[in-house]
């Protein structure tokens, strides 16, 4: 009898540690608006003891698919065919990948399919009105808001938005401001752009689209070199001599420009514009530059083709920030539900020997929502096992309380 009990305790401890690692990795998430590429780098891996749990095959549900029917928190997606749902599930099922890599793998699926998650939509529908109501109340109550400049209002809005989030009883572990405020009015806004250039190319273009006047120096061994070359191949960037001499000279310092024509005894330049004008009139400036500058390493992004002239890239970036939060919630909830279902099955296999009660384990930090804190203060009878996660984006897990402990 002692051996099964010890085995049960060991299994519960290992699974609990795996979940705790995941909670700790999420503990420093800030309420802020992030760039599409700014994904938090935190790691959770499955050990031999906490091997991947079989979450069940796809189940049709109306026009959508239940991704994980055997999980303690089934997730349902709409607006995607079975092949797309299979790809989504495959990415979610791989517990050997760090969570940030799984989110990165989910993002192109979400962006290209424009899928919806019912459970996330239900949460937003229930919580966003309360958030907006509190946000408006804070504006009205503020003596500063009514007389503030536009820039000061931007600063106040960050403060008010954070306070409005804190009034919510249920707060998933994600950037809720982005989730509530950045949902695109038209989810197809980027479809034509992705169809033309591909998701990865567009994603990289967006990273640098606010610096079209910048000349990038990218050595051959730089990890972004293939991406810049892909932009040039697709007409989204120019390279080398095609950039134009004024732009190439503009990335040089006054000292470098002075050294380039030192033998011509140039005047002392106080501004770059003066130096560039002088160098452009040098009869052999092309030869001088080619002797000192590696033209193959130079890239400059171009504006989008004319058919995308009406496309506001800031709206695309905002839509992708929203998609990233959806991906974060999908990945986190799916994985936590997988751990919880696996833990639940192991409790059953061990016969729950010696378990006197169950308790929800909450992180109890500044990000923990009131809903989870209340749940963690209650002990549940051994015969009434509570379900975790408690809600979408929940960080809670379940722990047994043994007799005499």
Strand numbers in spatial order across the main sheet: 1-2-3-4
Average pLDDT value? 85
- Low-pLDDT residue intervals, each spanning 5 or more residues: 1-51
Topology pattern, helix = H, strand = E: HEEEHHEHHHHHEHEHHHHEHEHEE
Class derived from helix and strand content: alpha+beta
Strand content: 5-15%
Query: What's the end-to-end separation, in Å?
Result: 18 Å
Binned, the helix content reads 40-55%
* Total strand segments: 10
Number of H- or I-type helical stretches: 15
Topology record:
Layout: H1 2-26, E1 59-61, E2 64-66, E3 76-78, H2 82-93, H3 99-113, E4 116-117, H4 118-141, H5 150-166, H6 176-181, H7 191-197, H8 199-208, E5 216-217, H9 225-233, E6 237-239, H10 245-250, H11 254-260, H12 272-280, H13 285-292, E7 298-301, H14 313-349, E8 355-361, H15 370-376, E9 379-381, E10 397-402
Antiparallel strand pairs: 1-2, 2-3, 3-4, 5-7, 6-7, 8-9, 8-10
Helix pairs in contact: 1-14, 2-3, 3-14, 4-5, 7-8
Structure description:
By secondary structure, the protein is of the alpha+beta class. It has a domain at 217-302. It has 15 helices and 10 strands. It has helices at 2-26, 82-93, 99-113, 118-141, 150-166, 176-181, 191-197, 199-208, 225-233, 245-250, 254-260, 272-280, 285-292, 313-349, 370-376, and strands at 59-61, 64-66, 76-78, 116-117, 216-217, 237-239, 298-301, 355-361, 379-381, 397-402. The strands form 3 sheets. The chain has a 4-stranded antiparallel beta sheet with strand order 1-2-3-4. The chain starts with a helix and ends with a strand.
């Amino acid at each position: 009898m002692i051996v099964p009990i010890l085995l049960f305790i060991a299994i519960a401890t290992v699974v609990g540690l795996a979940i705790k690692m995941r909670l700790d990795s999420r503990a420093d998430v800030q309420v802020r608006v992030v760039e599409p590429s700014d994904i938090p780098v935190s790691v959770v891996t499955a050990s031999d003891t906490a091997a991947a749990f079989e979450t069940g095959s796809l189940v049709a549900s109306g026009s959508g698919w239940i991704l994980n029917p055997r999980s303690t928190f089934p997730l349902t997606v709409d607006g995607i065919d079975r092949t797309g749902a299979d790809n989504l599930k495959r990415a979610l099922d791989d517990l050997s990948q760090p969570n940030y890599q799984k989110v990165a793998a989910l993002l192109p699926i979400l962006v290209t399919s424009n899928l919806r998650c019912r459970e996330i939509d239900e949460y937003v529908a229930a919580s966003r009105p309360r958030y907006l109501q509190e946000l408006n109340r804070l504006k009205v109550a503020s003596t500063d808001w009514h007389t503030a400049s536009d820039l000061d209002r931007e600063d106040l809005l960050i403060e008010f938005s954070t306070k409005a989030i804190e009034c919510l009883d249920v707060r998933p572990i994600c950037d809720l401001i982005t989730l509530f405020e950045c949902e695109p009015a038209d989810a197809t806004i980027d479809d034509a752009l992705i169809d033309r250039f591909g998701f990865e190319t567009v994603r990289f273009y967006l990273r640098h689209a606010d610096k079209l006047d910048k000349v990038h120096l990218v050595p051959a061994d730089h990890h972004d070199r293939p991406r810049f070359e892909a932009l040039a191949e697709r007409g989204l960037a120019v390279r080398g001599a095609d950039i134009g001499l004024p732009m190439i000279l503009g990335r040089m310092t006054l000292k470098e420009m002075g050294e380039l024509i030192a033998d011509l005894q140039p005047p002392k330049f106080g501004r770059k514009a003066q130096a560039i004008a002088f160098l452009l009139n040098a009869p052999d400036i092309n030869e001088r530059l080619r002797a000192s500058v590696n033209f193959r390493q130079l890239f400059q992004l171009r504006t989008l083709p004319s058919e995308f002239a009406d496309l506001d890239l800031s709206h695309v970036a905002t839509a992708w920030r929203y998609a990233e939060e959806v991906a974060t919630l999908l990945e986190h909830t799916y994985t936590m539900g997988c751990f919880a279902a696996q833990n639940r099955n192991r409790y059953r296999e061990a016969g729950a020997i010696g378990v006197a009660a169950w308790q929800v384990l909450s992180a109890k930090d500044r990000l923990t929502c009131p809903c989870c804190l209340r749940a963690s203060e209650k002990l549940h009878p051994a015969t009434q096992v509570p379900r975790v996660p408690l809600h979408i984006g929940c960080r809670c897990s379940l722990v047994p309380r043994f007799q005499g402990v």
